[in-house]
Amino acid sequence: xxxxxxxxxxxxxxxxxxxxxxxxxxxxxxxxxxxxxxxxxxxxxxxxxxxxxxxxxxxxxxxxxxxxxxxxxxxxxxxxxxxxxxxxxxxxxxxxxxxxxxxxxxxxxxxxxxxxxxxxxxxxxxxxxxxxxxxxxxxxxxxxxxxxxxxxxxxxxxxxxxxxxxxxxxxxxxxxxxxxxxxxxxxxxxxxxxxxxxxx
Length: 200
Known about the structure:
This protein is α+β, with helices and mostly antiparallel strands. The chain has helices at residues 2-32, 109-118, 156-160; strands at residues 46-48, 61-64, 75-78, 83-93, 101-107, 125-127, 133-134, 138-141, 147-155, 166-174, 180-181, 187-193. The protein is built from three helices and twelve strands; from the N terminus they run αβββββαββββαβββ. The strands form two sheets. Strands 1, 3, 4, 7, 9 and 11 form a six-stranded mixed sheet that branches. Strands 2, 5, 6, 8, 10 and 12 form a six-stranded mixed sheet that branches.
C-alpha cells in the first residue's frame, strides 16, 4: 500500500513538474514573439534635409547637376516658365508615428557667402543672388508620410549669365510645427555648376 501511495505521489509530482515546465516554455515562446528593440518607438524624432547628407557627412554641400540622365537628374528645366528647379526635400527620421507637420524654409545668403569666402569650391564660386531664385515659405509633410519634396527655382535667363561659374546658395529649415530639427543636417549648401547643366 505504501508503494502504491508513493508511486501515486511521484506521478502527481511529475505531472506538476511537467505542467510547470510547459508553462515556462509557453511564457518563453510568448516573450520571444514580442517585437524586438529595433521596432520600439523610442528616442527623438528629427527633421532634416536628405540633400545635406549627399556627401556622406563630409559637408552639407549638394552638387547640381547630379544623376545619370534626364530621368535621374537632381534638377528640372522648366523652359515654359523660364526656370531651373533644383530638387530639395524634408524628411523625418525616427520610429514615432508619422504625424503631419510643417516646417519653414529660408535662404541663408550669409552662410553661402562664408562657403564662397572659404575657398573650398574654387575661384569660380559666387553667391547665387537672392533675386535670382525662389523657395517656398513652408513645406508640409502630410499625415502618414515621413518626407516631401520642394524646389529651389532659379531664373533661367539669369542662370545663363553665370556660365563658367559655380553658384552657391544655402537653404535651411526652421520652426517645425512638430518634432525637432537635426541641426547638423537641417541646411543644405546648393552648388550649381552652370556650365555642366543641360540648358536649352
